Amino acid sequence: MVVMMPVPPPRMHVLMRPGAPRAVVLRQGPSRVFCTIGWDLASDRFTVGQWCKHKLYVHRCDLSADGQWMVYFALDGKWRSETRGAFTALSRAPYLKAVRLWPQGNTWGGGGVLYASQAELPPGLEEQWTALRQVEGHNRLGGGSYAERLRRDGWTRAGNEKASAGGKAYQRELGAGWVLRKKVVAETEHHQLRAPDGALRALPTWGWAELDRPRSRVVWAEAGVLHAAALGPDGPGTPVQLLDARGMTFEPLRAPYDDDTVFEP
User: What residue spans define the domains of the chain?
Assistant: First the structure.
């Protein structure tokens, strides 16, 4: 008798900036198959961007403050191609078609954190946002640290270094005394809610979570489904399902823009 193993749900991470009107969902599964999905936060409408069959390092990706541009770090393993096997790219969110490409050739560093400042930008971005530059000889944009990205967006360190051994812990205030905690171990995130009385509620199935402050809600990814819950005095309320990404399958799609590009997956 052949025993069929259950198919694990896709993993999801979201690039989301405080106050931005749009976000990008990075869906992974199966294995190194990724899909980018645009998310209009005001209407909770979703638009499929592009698929790729190479690894995206989700903690080395970022979104510009206006939600228009995305930087990502990818490993395609094509070591003799123009990407040199691993590369950083700048694209128009939520697509992967690169308007700038920084071949790297290894997976040390790479990716970026985007800031609202002037730097070497493609034409048209000068007034948009961000420091795009090489750092210490590496093809990176502004650093690429997930911790740096969390701090920029209002998260603070939780506890101390000894208490967070095996990963770094962060937290952000939700209001009314509630706190969302996030512990990052490699590319895995673990979450908790802390009540006003200090009691901790473990959320072992949450793979990503964030505060959507303009809409007074917590949003999170859980087993391939994106949820939201309004915030009140008693913490997050009844969950509402926003997106079920479990049934999605690979589809070759092209980006709908004609920039002078150097790479399209």
Answer: 11-244
